[in-house]
Design brief:
The model has no long low-confidence stretch (mean pLDDT about 95). The chain is mainly α. It has one domain. Helix content is about 65%, strand content about 0%. It is elongated, with a radius of gyration of 15 Å. Helix 1 (about 5-15) runs antiparallel to helix 4 and helix 2 (about 30-35) packs antiparallel against helix 3.
């Protein structure tokens, strides 16, 4: 059997790494956890966190292009909504991982590359 406290810690760390920074370095945490951990639930949480990072970058690039194309008119609407949604999803993932450590969290409406 796997340690539930370790699952909680590593799962929350993977999903919470999005808050470390928006730079590419924050994806290193779930990648490291994916390679180091033997626990299948922790590995699934790490994969899901990696996929979420890719989606945040993709949607951020799309929003940036839209803001540039509209000469900043959408700059007051899209970026705040984007940040609220991605923060809310991350907080939901962390709380879900902490409350139910035996099941990996799945983000809704994202593309899964890993």
């Amino acid at each position: 059997m796997y340690d539930a406290d370790k699952r909680k810690l590593l799962g929350a760390l993977c999903h919470g790494s999005i808050f470390f920074s928006t730079a590419i370095l924050s994806i290193g945490v779930p990648i490291a956890v994916l390679f180091v951990s033997e626990d299948p639930v922790v590995k699934e949480n790490a994969k899901e966190a990696i996929n979420f990072h890719f989606n945040v970058w993709l949607y951020g690039a799309i929003i940036t292009v839209l803001v540039v194309l509209t000469f900043g008119l959408l700059g007051f609407i899209l970026p705040p909504i984007f940040f609220l949604v991605h923060w809310a999803l991350s907080i939901w993932a962390i709380t879900s991982t902490l409350s139910n450590p035996d099941q990996a969290f799945r983000y809704p409406f994202i593309f899964r590359l890993v």
